[in-house]
Each structure stands twice: as structure tokens, then as C-alpha cells.
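Exercise 7b. C-alpha cells:
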């Protein structure tokens, strides 16, 4: 396996289909997409495997795996039948055979077939992980594979340490969505390869990423020992667009970086930040539910973070983490870049605008504070009166009752509520009759981009500004802090719009 490793980590495409025809088709497709290693999950096949058919036109090395249910597989025959199939696979032209540690001693090495000695724990991270690994290293392996279930974020570090320190090439990973980061970071730790599911619809293990994700979002094969790591922390984090956006943007400008999703449960941020210094992770985007905790834990805070008590960015330095909030500045950038000119042609000026902010949550606060510094006339309205009044007092502006919002006239409306966000696509926080031609309507929601509010505003000839613009700009400010390079904003917008489009092909570059 050392030959593969010397070329950088490899993405193994696991193919798990019930029909031979689909298996051979996916082998061909995986090869076309650049797979250099394929795992065939023989336990998924509905019929007795026809090895000759499966291995004809073999485009790259192939691993034979017959996984039992206890290890996360689908094998439904007896153990004797499984052992017979494993022995047949060994003599049939596979390049690797996967042998679980409890059966490995019963199967002798044969010819050039390499041995992957594997251990799966679908329940937990075993206390004696290192002992298990040491035993496996004595079972004549070419590669040791350890897949355990992460119970806390730090379990990923234990696996990564094991990969790094092992003399035998070790593929280590944590299953579950707490462990997704280990599937990417394993490349940095020296894992010879990582497993991915080839088919997005047919995921074979909890938390597993797809072949396309690893290849075209994380650029796994290009990970180098000096690749700088960044990430996004939140819970949930699975649907975050930030890994796609930051990884593609870093790639676009030629920055050697890797941006990883970290699921961190509420209340665990301090321990997480401390533990992951070991990697180290150089900067984080921070999302729900950690924005307040990030602000509290930081050693240095920007003025915005001091005022708002919430941060969406953490930057690591020898003195500890510095906290920033890029939402407010992004919204102001978006507004300035999209302000309509006055009827006489003079460029738009925020100081001359009368703005109504709908909402008083985190985004409303960030925008209200940033907007207050521009001299704009602000009015806040919010469903929950106390919350709205409190924000209005903070930024010293007017508050109008939610029920009275339609009688307040303004030339700029900013929606900072969740009304209209997926899946409530037919809701709008303001009645369409309020929308007069030429006012500016800014909806901070970006899922979807064309909310009901935006659609109605366009129909009534308002100027419109969508949440995608702000989302890209807040990421752009983070990108600059992370990399020291100018963010490719237009490219980033195209990436986000493509990912959000109904025929979402998340894994392809725009
Ligand atoms: P938040 O802190 O939970 O605040 C939610 C706000 O929405 C509150 O003002 C809440 O009013 C109001 N709201 C929720 N449901 C409502 C309803 N049915 N009727 C009236 N008001 C309602 O959330 P946040 O973090 O500020 O996020 C708010 C929005 O900003 C989200 O929809 C998100 O899409 C968008 N966002 C955009 C970006 C970007 O970069 N473009 C970034 C982050 C978030 P109460 O106080 O009465 O509960």
C-alpha cells in the first residue's frame, strides 16, 4: 500500500449494489470519474457473485468485502458460506481482501492478494482501541482498517493519532455525523486511503461522504502534510454550504487549504476548541448553536462581537482565538453594492435611507448595529415585542408593533425573520400591497434565494437583494481572514447559486 500512499491519499469508491449489471456499470463510472481504488461490497449482491463478470475490464485495484450485519454489512448467509465466498474471492483476481480481525488468522495470505485487516464497532469508541490496533498489526496485514462510532468530537483525534503513529498503513475513521471530519482529516494524518460511497443515493455507512464530495469538494487526493485546516462548527452541520463554498474558493485562488465540517453538540465548544488545537485548525466559521459561546470563549473580540455577544468567525493565534462577526459588515457591503441611484442619478447613500428591519434575532442584531453606524434611519419591528424593543433601545432607533408594520413607510425593507425560509415557501413577512415600485427589498434568507417576498417584490418593480449576496460576502470576509487572500466573490456566488438550484449538482464546479 505504501506505493499509493507515496502519491498522496487515495479515495476508495465503495460500490454496494444488489445486481451485477449495476455493479459493473458503477465500476466503469467510478473509473471514468478517476477512482484509483474500488471496494466491492459482495454482501449487497442478491445472487451468488459471478467474479469473472464482476472483474472483467477491471480498471483499478479492487477490494473484495463480505460484511456481516454486526459490522454494518448485509450478509444474510451462514458464516461458513461467507468464509467460502471470501476464499473464492481471494483466488478470483481481486487485489485486496477485507478480513475482519476475528477471522483474519483463519485465512492465509495467497499470492499477491493484499490483506486488509478490519475492525468495526457500530456502537462506540472502544476503550482499548490502541490494543485492538496492535493485535491487528500482528495479523499479517498490508493495511489495517479501523471504523468506530464517534461519541464525542475528541474521538476523531484518537483515531487520527492512531493513523499518524502506526507503522502499518492504517485507514482509520469514525462513523456517525460526529465522525465525518475524520473521513477528511485522515488524509492529513497519513491514511493510505479513505472509504466513500460511490452512489449518493446508496449510502453504506453512517456519516460516510461520497466519492464526488471527497474528490470535488475536499480535493482529498491533493491534501499535503502542510495543508492548512479550517472548518465550520455547528449542530446540525450536515447541510452547511460552507465546506463547498470555502474549499472551492481556496482551490480557485490556489490556496493550500482544507475546510472541514465539525459537528459539535451544544455545550461542548470549549472542549472541542481545546482538543482540536492538536491538528491544528487555524480558523472556524461558527454557526447555530455556538455563536454566543464562541464570543464568550475568545481571548480577543472585535467591537461587533463585544457589542453583540455573538461571533460567526474564530481565528487562531498563539494568544488564543480571536472572535469576529462578519454578518453585519457583509449586509452593509451588500446594501452599498446594490443601492439604487437617486432619480437625478446621484449614487445611493445609506445615510439617506429609511430602513425597516423585520425581526430582532441574531441576524437582525448584526445588521441593525452595523447599519446604525452608517447614519441610516432605522425602525425595527418584531413579532415578539420585548425582543424588538430591546434591540431598538440598543441601537437607539424606533420600534413599531409587528401588527402595525404595514402602516410604517420606508424605502428599504430588510427581512431578518425566518418567514419564507424552506420549507415555508409560500409565506412572506410582509403583505405584497406594501411593496411599492423602486423601494429596496432585501431578504436575508438564502434557502431558497427566490423567496415569496423576493418574487412579489420583483413583480411590483422593487429593487431586490437576496440572502445569497450577504451569505457570500460574510464567507468572503472569513476567507480573507483565513487565507490573507482576496475572496473570488463572483465565483463564490456562482458556487452557492448552483448548489441551491433545484437541479442541485453539489459536486460539480460551476
Ligand atoms: P433567530 O435569531 O432565530 O431570529 C429569528 C427571527 O425570526 C426572530 O426575530 C423571530 O421573531 C422571527 N420569526 C420567526 N418565525 C416568525 C414568524 N412565524 N413570524 C414572525 N417572525 C418570526 O434567527 P437568525 O439567526 O437571526 O436568522 C434569521 C434569518 O436570517 C434566517 O431565516 C436565515 O435564513 C437568515 N440568515 C441569513 C444569513 C445570510 O448570510 N444571508 C445568515 C444567517 C441567517 P421572534 O423574536 O418573535 O421569535
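Sequence design result:
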Amino acid at each position: 500500500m505504501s506505493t499509493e500512499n507515496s502519491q498522496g491519499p487515495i479515495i476508495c469508491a465503495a460500490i454496494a449494489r444488489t445486481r451485477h449489471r449495476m455493479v459493473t456499470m458503477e465500476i466503469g463510472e467510478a473509473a471514468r470519474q478517476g477512482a484509483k481504488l474500488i471496494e466491492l461490497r459482495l454482501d449487497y449482491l442478491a445472487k451468488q457473485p459471478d467474479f469473472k463478470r464482476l472483474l472483467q475490464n477491471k480498471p483499478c485495484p479492487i477490494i473484495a468485502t463480505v460484511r456481516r450485519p454486526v459490522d454494518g454489512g448485509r450478509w444474510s448467509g451462514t458464516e461458513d458460506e461467507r468464509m467460502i465466498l471470501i476464499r473464492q474471492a481471494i483466488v478470483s483476481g481481486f487485489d485486496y481482501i477485507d478480513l475482519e480481525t476475528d477471522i483474519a488468522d483463519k485465512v492465509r495470505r495467497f499470492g499477491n492478494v493484499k490483506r486488509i485487516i478490519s475492525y468495526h464497532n457500530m456502537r462506540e469508541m472502544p476503550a482499548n482501541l490502541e490494543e485492538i490496533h496492535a493485535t491487528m498489526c500482528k495479523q499479517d496485514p498490508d493495511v489495517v482498517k479501523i471504523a468506530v462510532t464517534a461519541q464525542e468530537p475528541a474521538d476523531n483525534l484518537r483515531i487520527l493519532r492512531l493513523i499518524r503513529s502506526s507503522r502499518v498503513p492504517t485507514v482509520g475513521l469514525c462513523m456517525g455525523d460526529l465522525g465525518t471530519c475524520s473521513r477528511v482529516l485522515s488524509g492529513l494524518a497519513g491514511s493510505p486511503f479513505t472509504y466513500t460511497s460511490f452512489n449518493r443515493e446508496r449510502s453504506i455507512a453512517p456519516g460516510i461522504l461520497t466519492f464526488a464530495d471527497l474528490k470535488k469538494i475536499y480535493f482529498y487526493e491533493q491534501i499535503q502534510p502542510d495543508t492548512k485546516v479550517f472548518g465550520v462548527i455547528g449542530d446540525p452541520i450536515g447541510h452547511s454550504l460552507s465546506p463547498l463554498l470555502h474549499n472551492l474558493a481556496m482551490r480557485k485562488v490556489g490556496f493550500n487549504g482544507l475546510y472541514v465540517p465539525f459537528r459539535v453538540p451544544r455545550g461542548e465548544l470549549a472542549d472541542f476548541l481545546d482538543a482540536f488545537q492538536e491538528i491544528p485548525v487555524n480558523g472556524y466559521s461558527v454557526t447555530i448553536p455556538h455563536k454566543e459561546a464562541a464570543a464568550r470563549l475568545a481571548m480577543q473580540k472585535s467591537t461587533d462581537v463585544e457589542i453583540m455577544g455573538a461571533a460567526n468567525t474564530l481565528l487562531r493565534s498563539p494568544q488564543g482565538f480571536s472572535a469576529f462577526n462578519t454578518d453585519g459588515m457583509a449586509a452593509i457591503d451588500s446594501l452599498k453594492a446594490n443601492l439604487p441611484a437617486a432619480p437625478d442619478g446621484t449614487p445611493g447613500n445609506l445615510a439617506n435611507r429609511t430602513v425597516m428591519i423585520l425581526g430582532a434575532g441574531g441576524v437582525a442584531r448584526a445588521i441593525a448595529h452595523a447599519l446604525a453606524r452608517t447614519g441610516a434611519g432605522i425602525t425595527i419591528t418584531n413579532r415578539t415585542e420585548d425582543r424588538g424593543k430591546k434591540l431598538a433601545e440598543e441601537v437607539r432607533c424606533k420600534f413599531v408593533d409587528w401588527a402595525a408594520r404595514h402602516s410604517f413607510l420606508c424605502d428599504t425593507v430588510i427581512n431578518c425573520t425566518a418567514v419564507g425560509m424552506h420549507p415555508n415557501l409560500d409565506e412572506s413577512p410582509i403583505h405584497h400591497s406594501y411593496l411599492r415600485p423602486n423601494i429596496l427589498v432585501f431578504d436575508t434568507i438564502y434557502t431558497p434565494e427566490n423567496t415569496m417576498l423576493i418574487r412579489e417584490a420583483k413583480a411590483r418593480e422593487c429593487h431586490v437583494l437576496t440572502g445569497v449576496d450577504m451569505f457570500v460576502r460574510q464567507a468572503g470576509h472569513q476567507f480573507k481572514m483565513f487565507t490573507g487572500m482576496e475572496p473570488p466573490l463572483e465565483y463564490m456566488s456562482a458556487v452557492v447559486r448552483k448548489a441551491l438550484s433545484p437541479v442541485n449538482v453539489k459536486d460539480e464546479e460551476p
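Instructor comment: The chain has a mean pLDDT of 94. The first strand starts at residue 10 and ends at 15.
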